Amino acid sequence: MSSSSSVRRGIMSSISNAIPLKNGLSLWCPRSTSVNQISGPSSIVSTSSRRRFTVSASSFANENREFVIVGGGNAAGYAARTFVEHGLADGRLCIVSKEAYAPYERPALTKGYLFPLDKKPARLPGFHTCVGSGGERQTPDWYKEKGIEMLYEDPMEGIDIEKQTVRTNSGKLLKYGSLIIATGCTASRFPDKIGGNLPGVHYIRDVADANSLISSLEKAKKVVVVGGGYIGMEVAAAAVGWKLDTTIIFPEDHLMTRLFTPSLAQKYEQLYQDYGVRFVKGASIKNLEAGSDGRVAGVKLENGSTIEADTVVVGIGAKPAIGPFERVGLSSAVGGIQVDGQFRTSVPGIFAIGDVAAFPLKIYNRIARVEHVDHARRSAHHCVKSLVTAHTATYDYLPYFYSRVFEYEGSQRKVWWQFFGDNVGETVEVGNFDPKVATFWIDSGKLKGVFLESGSPEEFQLLPKLARSQPSIDKAKLEKASSVEEALEIAKASLQG
Ligand SMILES: Cc1cc2nc3c(=O)[nH]c(=O)nc-3n(C[C@H](O)[C@H](O)[C@H](O)COP(=O)(O)OP(=O)(O)OC[C@H]3O[C@@H](n4cnc5c(N)ncnc54)[C@H](O)[C@@H]3O)c2cc1C
């Protein structure tokens, strides 16, 4: 069921910076600023960005640490692995973490973690980094064995750039040689005054959030998911698995507007509707209403209607967790902490990686912030390699995005898709979603981006090659393709052209 698109965009549009924007991959790759327009940190950074300290062997007995990573998430886990690979972790690396868990693969939280309880949901230690890339699973013991100091549940609260010290919540003072900021993002929230913190209202960023959501799902009957991006789509799919009455509300006119074409979105929306999910599109939320028990009982829209709910999950975007790093040099173009192609900030010895970093996206000549696990992994590896070796190559990232839903045992239709490149220009869609569909973005005769649902491993491997090469492609020929396989063959042949 769709609501009228004439509903005014009130509160939801007022937080439009947090919500996926209309054109392009705005949240992860804002294309507002060309790399050339920015006087990059590389021009400010001194030639030697690594500083050394005498540390007291592996005991971490004094306050000196050669390397400190602030943030214990996806990027931190991969950075730790790279330090280990270079033999520079033991007794030298300290990770300051807000969470109670060793770094894990965060995307699992809205996928396997939310499987119905009788369908073998994912749980730690099953998905610690670096299982997502086929690497060794880095459990808490792994960090101990590698001589890495982990400060759990002790977030960094202050930094003194001159003295090169960070202070943690428990009062610990650490003097760093090199500091890597890997604080990721925090979920955007509805304000308290409109019911954003009522019991039964959930945001999902970490394991604690996911556990809290599961305890609501166990009792839930009616779930409202606010937001039509990947978090909304994944949580709604999970709620279907739990056999709950589910409604998705969003201000746009279709799902995933930052990536999907209307036609592509229509196919996914139909699938969700076949599963019984209702859609309320073009909607703006006035407030979340409480019942007599103080728990959320409904979502009131600006048009005066109310949708009943005992559980509300809000997936309206995320903000870079800049916290105490304002003085390090922030990007006015895309938010986050500005770095150069080796993840150096404007302050010698301080680096930023993962979701929080605003970096030069070389392939498209613009500054971007990418909220994607693949970038978290690659930026961590690139940064640490540049820091500890003479490696000076510029990071050259190809935007990539994926999702997988309805994957629990017994599901009638599993969905998994990948996108590589830039979603600019005209589109050609091939396939009927049974199960495959592909969309090609073509700009000035060049293939810029490719989306594929339910591809084979070989087909998925072709996508980055296409998006990276940006070959000239015959659009008319592509339009005539009678199957996804044929369209991909045409695209593959264009690589030779
Ligand atoms: C529910 C969910 C599903 C996702 N699904 C996908 C997906 O399907 N595909 C995909 O590509 N990406 C997905 N992502 C995005 C992906 O998880 C992120 O891009 C990735 O985790 C970024 O890694 P990071 O290390 O930069 O940040 P994070 O993994 O968020 O880690 C940051 C860590 O820093 C900690 N921190 C913050 N401030 C401080 C402080 N002051 N002191 C100490 N610690 C601090 C945080 O608590 C957190 O543990 C998803 C994200 C979420 C939340």
Automatic annotation (TrEMBL):
Identify the gene encoding this protein: LOC105158249
Matching entries from InterPro entries are given as: FAD-oxidoreductase/Apoptosis, FAD/NAD-bd_sf, FAD/NAD-binding_dom, FAD/NAD-linked_Rdtase_dimer_sf, MDHAR3-like_C
A single GO cellular-component term from the record reads: cytoplasm
Give the EC number(s) under which this enzyme is classified: 1.6.5.4
Monodehydroascorbate reductase 3-like C-terminal domain segment(s):
398-477
Annotated FAD/NAD(P)-binding domain ranges read: 67-379
Annotated protein name in UniProt: monodehydroascorbate reductase (NADH)
Q: Which domain of life is it from?
A: Eukaryota
Q: A Gene Ontology MF term for this entry? A: monodehydroascorbate reductase (NADH) activity
Into which family does the record put it? Belongs to the FAD-dependent oxidoreductase family.
List the cofactors.
FAD
Can you name the source organism? Sesamum indicum (Oriental sesame)
Instruction: List the keywords (alphabetical).
Output: FAD, Flavoprotein, NAD, Oxidoreductase, Redox-active center
Q: Which Pfam families match?
A: MDHAR3-like_C (PF21791), Pyr_redox_2 (PF07992)
